[in-house]
Design a protein that fits this description.
CATH topology: Four Helix Bundle (Hemerythrin (Met), subunit A)
CATH architecture: Up-down Bundle
CATH class: Mainly Alpha
Strand content: 5-15%
Strand order of the largest sheet: 1-2
Largest sheet: 2 strands, antiparallel
Helix content: 55-70%
Order of helices and strands: HHHHHHEEHH
Length: 169
């Protein structure tokens, strides 16, 4: 069974995707300044997952263009939502192969990059990712409201069914 923190990450991902379901390519590329567009946000979350769970954890850069074009502070762009979702799915699928084995002991270890311990632990990077998903889920819903979309998903979805609280094992 996955670690409870991983369950929360997976649920956060699913809510992020649920909040953009049904959006058109055209609307996903619209920027309402100063925000980025929804498709860029998908690429940005793919970047974070790749950075933390592929590069930090295993030294892998699966999609170099994601690393370059969607990092924190990268230039705004209006990429294809379809392409960003494909990249996000490839990266999260690869990340899941590492996340499935996360343990309490690993979560307490500092992230090591290029042989140097960083100031944060693997547990903290998972928490950062969860909170980042919720930030952009809200932003994406706000963008959709500003674009006039109706019947948006309610906040929060099936937490009790998909990721209820459970103690560490």
């Amino acid at each position: 069974m996955p670690h409870p923190l991983v369950d929360q990450l997976v649920f956060s991902r699913s809510e992020f995707i649920r909040a953009i379901q049904g959006i058109s390519e055209e609307d996903a590329k619209k920027r309402i300044l100063p925000m980025n567009c929804i498709s860029w946000n998908v690429g940005h979350l793919a970047w974070q997952e790749q950075k933390y769970y592929l590069t930090y954890a295993r030294g892998i850069i699966l999609l170099p263009n994601i690393q370059k074009d969607f990092a924190k502070g990268a230039a705004a762009s209006t990429p294809s939502l379809k392409k960003m979702l494909e990249a996000w799915e490839a990266i999260t699928r690869e990340a899941d192969s590492w996340l499935k084995d996360v343990s309490n002991e690993l979560l307490l270890q500092p992230v090591v990059l290029d042989g140097k311990s960083m100031e944060f632990t693997y547990g903290n990077v998972i928490l950062r990712t969860i909170y980042h998903y919720w930030y952009h889920t809200g932003e994406n819903c706000a963008i959709r409201q500003m674009l006039g979309h109706k019947d948006l998903p309610s906040f929060v979805g099936d937490l009790d069914g998909k990721a209820p609280y459970r103690p560490e094992e």
